[in-house]
Amino acid sequence: MLQSCLKSGYLKNGQKLDPARRKLFRTMLSVPKRTLPEKIHPFIREVACRVFGHICPVFFVAEPLTETADRRKATRSIPRDVMLKVVRRDGQICQKCNQPVADDEVEFDHVIPFSKGGTTTTENLRLIHRRCNRAKSASLNELLAENPLVHLYEIQRSHRSKKKNA
Fold first, then answer.
1. Of the candidates 4, 48, 102, 133, which lies 20 to 30 Å from 113 by C-alpha distance?
2. 92/60 Cα distance (integer angstroms)
3. Angle at 37 between CA 34 and CA 40, to 5 degrees
4. Which domains does the chain have, with CATH numbers?
């Protein structure tokens, strides 16, 4: 598309191509296209953002000990008011298997595990059975795509199809 604009001298909307845009388009075309690596290093796969594909800064600041007072207070224990809000919100139904949870089976699960930087807030907690919580451990697999690049491609493809249908 940039090449056709440079060749014709006009933008897609019919406006004449100004010198600044002509220079920008030439610069953009001169940058070599990147190709995706055939194999992604396991460390990069672990810390890459599954939505945008970049190396996610959350993994670098996931330490519970830091210089800010708020983060020094970070703890795995859940305040009583937060527990009550989560129970009311979830209606005492397991958010993994959708079955009622008996009082002696109630556990609170960090959607993003505490060990991976997840917070102890109502937004990051869910009510869950003991057995469902033990099966999950500190895994992010149910939240994240296996390959961040494939996930990014799927998002872009869905956006393109929405534009075509609109």
1. 102
2. 35
3. 140
4. 1-33 (no CATH), 40-74 (no CATH), 75-139 (1.10.30.50)
Distance CA 97, CA 20 (A): 58
pLDDT at position 140, please? 66
Residue-wise pLDDT for 63-76, tens only, equals: 444 444 554 455 67
How many C-beta neighbours within 10 Å does residue 23 have? 10
Prediction pTM value: 0.45
Tell me if 67 sits within 8 A of 162, measured CB to CB. no
3-state secondary structure of 22: helix
What average pLDDT does range 14-22 have in this prediction? 88
Question: CB-based contacts of 109: which residues, under 8 Å, 6+ apart?
Answer: 95, 96, 125, 126, 127, 128, 132, 133, 136
